[in-house]
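Re: the multi-chain job from yesterday

Posting the exact lines I submitted so nobody has to dig through the queue logs.
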Amino acid sequence: MKFRIERDVLADAVAWTARSLPVRPPVPVLAGMLIEAGDQLKLSSFDYEVSAQMTMDIDADEPGTALVSGRLLAEICRSLPAAPVEITTDGAKVTLKCGSAKFTLLTMPVEDYPSLPDMPPAAGTIGSDAFAAAVSQVAIAAGRDDTLPMLTGVRVEIEGETVTLASTDRYRLAVRTLRWKPERPDISAVALVPAKTLSDTAKSLTSGAEVSIALATGGTGEGMIGFEGGGRRTTTRLLDAEFVKYQSLWPKETSAVAEIQTGPFAEAVKRVGLVAEKNTPVRLSFRQDEVVLEAGSGDDAQAVEVLGASLDGQDIDIAFNPNFLLDGLSAIGSDVARLAMTTSTKPAVITGKPADEGDPDYRYLIMPIRLSS
Amino acid sequence: MRLVIARCSVDYAGKLTAHLPMAPRLILMKADGSVSIHADDRAYKPLNWMNPPCTLKEEEGRWTVTHGKSGEQLILTIEEILHDSSHELGIDPGLRKDGVEAHLQELLAEHITTLGEGWKLIRREYPTAIGPVDILCRDDKSGTVAVEIKRRGEIDGVEQLTRYLELLNRDPLLAPVRGIFAAQEIKPQARVLAADRGIDCVTLDYDALRGIERDGTLF
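And the result, structure tokens for all chains:
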């Protein structure tokens, strides 16, 4: 194997592929990154859950394959000088030359490396930036504790031209709908994708204009979802769990709808929240033209701030975990936040104020904290 | 078990020397022949002690504890005895299995469908030649599953389950038996080892199993 490649191109490709290297490889070869050079250069990593493969055009002087330590290769590529890189195999070793630097890396047996799962059939395509934004809006509400695997996933529902993403950690629920271009107009599918993998993947695929989503669910064998865009292709195993029937969680009626400038509101929550001890809420009192934010009580430090707000409906006092509230406010992506509330003990819906009246494409449902007094 | 509370000073003569000045202390003389001198602090840890076998020679105002093999001596100079009583404790049943762990086993056996719809319990504490398996059950496809329950899931728990699985899989009536490692918290190393051996990991929610409902959640 012998080929030359631009340093930045290689560094980007190696860094992206290295993201899927397992932290604790049960088999030593999985710590490796597979380099396949031919008409194209292919870099692969796999940890049995997630696979990543980067493909780019090169002109190899001699085709070949090699398996080298992925971590080490990623660290080396990160700190190479700005010069073209030449990679050659030399017996059981790989030599990497860049400017005046030269590295010799040990290789592992290529034949021991597992074959990467095949990409499932393509289901459709979506704008990469829109997809990354939507995933980040939803993934914030996913749980991190794996007691209930369902809570660590993002549910992806595909119905024709509409994709719905949803996740919840029991304290809040985030749901986003967006349009995409399905392969077949009558497509209908659901999948539960690990939230962390999905958000990392969506963020890393913004280099191409579009992301192609491939889905294999149902039938025998484990479900799998694949994403492809800009020469990068990654697959991940789906979570095998039933997602909560979240449609019934939305409040049937609301007694008060408040509208507040998102920026100043988020800043005030952050400020007032400084005195909120762990697990204590920020209390909001909505009146006709204002909202009073308070935190802390009794002998502890206290904070209070008053903001202008418009309220349609009855006056209401309600309290939230400040972090969960901030997550919602940062995700709505709108200058004006709209809070639809029922009572101080029933969940509230946070949305951005839509330009025209219609269903907002992003909704964040948050459970209030019961006030003890 | 003989308990003595006395004002005493203690001198230790052996590999090294130590001296405890005159003060009120608790002296424990256990049935195994050990003697230990305790102050009113440091939990279980004595100020000084002599392991069995040892002999106690009681003289007026001076007790001498001599170690049977090494001849090391603990000399107690007694000024005043404040309390002296003996109690027959009998044979101790030993340290019982962690309360939470036993309870988790009981609860999971009772709610075996936590592991999956249609699962059935075969029995708790299923006996094998190398000790009982916490839970043996059948999954929805009638496959045998051995479950090892821990409070904290670490490497040695996976090893334990591996040994059970190896033995259980020799039984033609049960084989093939797969394993589930269930714990309230599973260490990443244990997770990797379990996955490598084809053992599934399940994190248990003690509160949910006990039926303690969370307050202030959406569902």
